[in-house]
Specification:
By secondary structure, this protein is of the alpha/beta class. It contains 11 helices and 13 strands. β4, α4 (93-101) and β5 form a beta-alpha-beta unit. It binds oxa(dethia)-CoA. The site of oxa(dethia)-CoA (UT7) has 21 residues, from α2, α6 and α8.
Length: 328
């Protein structure tokens, strides 16, 4: 009997219109275009302004995806949204998106795994398809990072941006789809990348706001090294487990946190740069949004049967790699 796999049958992204350039950041903090480009590879990032919320970005992704895949909103059974910047602490943003997009038959939930969120969500969603439970599932990876960034902190404000993408997952019995995943976490890494207040351990107060404890706190150098190690090791482990050699992989799809991290991962795996998806220069680090944004940007270059390795590392610490065969 053919194996029932979960295949991506469409991808659609959303990026806010406002472009925050390095030149504009130069006017906000003590930095410069040369430093930002050489240390991170980022030229500009998108910022969500005005009335739109994170859920509205998700709605744009879902609506575009439905139109593109000729699917009606009523057919969607489940929406999983990977984000750390949902509209509010509760309820989750997946169900707000379902409501606003007219997906009246879908239930949903959010996954909080920071930059690895899309991997965690895609892997979870694929189980609902593989087991025969559902046939149409949407996975969203997106973040509204500008809502939790301190624009007086030059170490973080230059990196992050807003946006993300959504994919439709459907059953495939021809061998294409999600093949395997290795997902990891190490909670002891939380001290290097987190938000100090706002949760139940330290609820918001005038004091926490004044202390700037609702912004992203990151010890960049430590995260950098752990990210390179984590992505390389899970890619290698997954390749070995699936008896893959370098030439079997058409595309490496790495989390877009820093061009130096991407290059170190590519070099560590001996992957030629032309087979590594890179778009960090345009969008910066959109946290859970980077992987679907890469797939969306490179969609026209992808061919049915192409082997892809999606890899990410982020707050938690969380990290991992997914091996999939492109289905269209
Ligand atoms: O998304 C998932 C998780 N996040 C990541 O994977 C991010 C990982 N980390 C990084 O990408 C890098 O660590 C950063 C981009 C955040 C920082 O780059 P770095 O090369 O590690 O710089 P650093 O923090 O070691 O700082 C080096 C110098 C410092 O000056 P001194 O102490 O040497 O005089 C900083 O104050 O660069 C200075 N600096 C800046 N200078 C100009 C830090 N930020 C800036 C800036 N402009 N924006």
């Amino acid at each position: 009997m053919p194996r029932r796999l979960a295949a991506i049958t469409g991808v659609h992204g959303y990026l806010p219109d406002y472009v925050l350039t390095n030149a504009e950041l130069e006017k906000m903090v003590e930095t410069n275009d040369e430093w930002i480009q050489s240390r991170t590879g980022i030229k500009e990032r998108r910022i969500l302004k005005g009335e739109m919320k994170a859920s509205d970005m998700g709605v744009e992704m879902v609506k575009g995806l439905l139109a593109k895949t000729n699917t009606s909103a009523e057919e969607i059974e489940l929406i999983i949204c990977a984000t750390i910047t949902g509209d509010c602490i509760f309820p989750d943003t997946a169900n707000t998106i379902a409501d606003k997009a007219g997906a009246v038959n879908a239930f949903g939930f959010d996954i909080n795994a920071a930059c690895s969120g899309f991997l965690y969500a895609l892997s979870t969603a694929s189980k609902f398809i593989e087991t025969g439970t559902y046939t149409k599932v949407i996975v969203i990876g997106m973040d509204h990072m500008s809502s939790i960034i301190d624009y007086t902190d030059r170490a973080t404000c230059i990196i992050f941006g807003d946006g993300g993408g959504a994919v439709l997952l459907e059953p495939d019995e021809s061998g294409n789809g999600v093949q395997d995943a290795i997902l990891k976490a190490d909670g002891s890494g939380r001290k290097f990348l987190h938000m100090k207040a706002g949760g139940s351990a330290k609820p918001p107060s005038a004091k926490t706001v004044a202390a700037g404890e609702h912004y992203v706190y990151q010890e960049g150098k430590h995260v950098f090294k752990a990210a390179v190690r984590g992505m390389i090791s899970t890619v290698k482990e997954l390749m070995q487990k699936n008896e893959l050699v370098n030439d079997d992989i058409r595309w490496l799809v790495p989390h877009q946190a820093n061009i130096r991290i991407i290059k170190s991962v590519g070099d560590g795996l001996d992957f030629p740069e032309e087979r590594v998806m890179i778009n960090i220069e345009k969008y910066g680090n959109t946290t859970a949004g980077t992987l679907p944004l890469c797939l969306w940007d490179y969609e026209s270059k992808l061919k049915k049967g192409d082997n892809l390795l999606l890899t990410a590392f982020g707050g938690g610490f969380t990290w991992g790699t997914i091996y999939l065969k492109w289905a269209y």
